[in-house]
Amino acid sequence: MSSTASDQAPPSTTNKNAKGIDIRSAMSILSSRAEDGGDKELRAEHQQDVPAKIVQERRAMGQSIDLESSLQWTKMGPTGGGGGSGGVTCPCPPPEQDVVTAAAEADPEAQEQRRALEEQRKQNEAELRAKLDNMSVSELLRAVLSAQGERTVTYKTYDGGLDTVLSTGNITAYPGVVAAATASFSVLSDTINAIRTTLVEKHGRKDVGKLIADLQRSEKEKLSTTAALHLERIREKNEEAVVMGSDNTGGADSRVHNMLREGVATLRAKVQELVETINETLEDIRYAAVEEEKS
Fold first, then answer.
1. Hey, is 18 helix, strand or coil?
2. Which residue in 22, 109, 138, 230 has its CB near the most CB atoms, within 10 A?
3. Which residues of 64-93 are buried (b: 16+ CB within 10 A; e: fewer)?
4. For 79-133, how does the pLDDT look when each residue is reduced to its tens digit (9 = 90+)?
5. Which pLDDT value is given to residue 224?
6. In 3D, which of 281, 279, 294 has the Cα closest to residue 137?
7. Among candidates 253, 63, 47, 76, which has minimal Cα distance to 147?
8. Which DSSP string corresponds to 34-102?
């Protein structure tokens, strides 16, 4: 949207009321998780000689809680106030343990732990590829649908964590919710990308490969928009506390609150549009799976 409530919100509203939620804490949480989420291969691209076209395609298909995109959407700076599996389960490797914080980046022990996790990730990927190589096209497509079902469950947990924060005003549980969601989304995205690679390279199915690529792009945009929605809802809740504690009825605080409510509504509508697009793509994948099972 061309103009958001945060463009006009006075910085002082962030900490006006003790019952409000610390916006900076929320942003710090999402920022630290964004560094560890998504496809690690994409984060190392600046160190590799990868053709620009391939880099762009991979970036579009990766998935993490992308705070940078969220900030562009909400215009908020760091100082501002489904699918069935048909019986096939997702062959996802286990999520990695979240061990890295900003303070631990220079800790040799933490770095060693990170190297160990990276080795484990590579082993998981090798095991996943071996498993995928033994699956038929229909089984691979059903595995995509199963992974998508797990994404739906992860979204419910992610959004439920925010609901708890908003109802209690206590953000201390939010870091764990975001960390768990980021780890789960990362593993699911990596798994679906691996399935797509197997379908295209081993089975020559560029048609379904395109469908899966479309799914991944939509899912990435949905996750970024959802992260933006979380931040906007936190800001709306803060401003609501300001308005309730203010005698300036109908004044500047009320106008800011109304604009934030409009921003939340706009983001909700965007998420719903993306859900509809994703569901249409999933229907095409289900149809392709059924047709493959008939042949």
1. coil
2. 230
3. bbbbebbbebbbbeeebbebebbebebbbb
4. 333 444 445 666 666 555 444 444 455 577 878 888 888 888 888 888 888 999 9
5. 94
6. 294
7. 63
8. HHHSS-HHHHTGGGS---HHHHHHHHHH-----HHHHHHHHT--TT------TTPPP-PPPPPP----G
- Residue 79, φ and ψ in degrees, nearest 5: -105, 0
* Cβ proximity of 129 and 198 under 8 Å: yes
With residue 27 as reference, give the H or E element that holds it. helix 23-36
Sign of the Cα torsion 244, 245, 250, 252 reads negative
Are 26 and 80 contacting, i.e. CB atoms less than 8 angstroms apart?
no
Write out the H or E segment, with its range, that includes residue 283.
Answer: helix 252-294
Residue 78 φ then ψ, to 5°: -65, -10
156: exposed, middle or buried (Cβ count in 10 Å: 0-12, 13-18, 19+)? exposed
| Residue 168 buriedness (CB in 10 A; 0-12 / 13-18 / 19+) | exposed
Token couple for 140: 């691979």
CA atoms of 115 and 130, how far apart (whole Å): 23
Tracing tokens 């908003």 back to the chain, one arrives at 166
Place of tokens 């929320």: 26
